[in-house]
Amino acid sequence: MKKQTAGRDNLGDFAPKFAELNDDVLFGEVWAREDKLSARDRSLITVASLMTQGVPQLEAHLKIAKTNGVTKEEIVELITHLAFYTGWPKAWSAMNYAKEIFGD
What we know:
Blueprint: H1 6-11, H2 16-30, H3 39-53, H4 57-67, H5 72-86, H6 88-102
Helix pairs in contact: 3-4, 3-5, 4-6, 5-6
């Protein structure tokens, strides 16, 4: 996985410790443990979790999921499946993001 700098790029001056934890611990250590769980599987889990919460970070993680090899068919199935557990409005929002990102 490529080195994450989003924390430092967006919040480094404002909240340097938070940025460090985001880039070095979450993405640098946890996401890098691919011998335990692949980046692809972590992406599926993360997208599912973010969808259930209805948070804006879902869009960014859908892009990461695509980069990590998750297919359009898998994302559509994940969103369809979770629609019944997390709520239809959240599924609509997720599906619209997915259409933008995986629609090509």
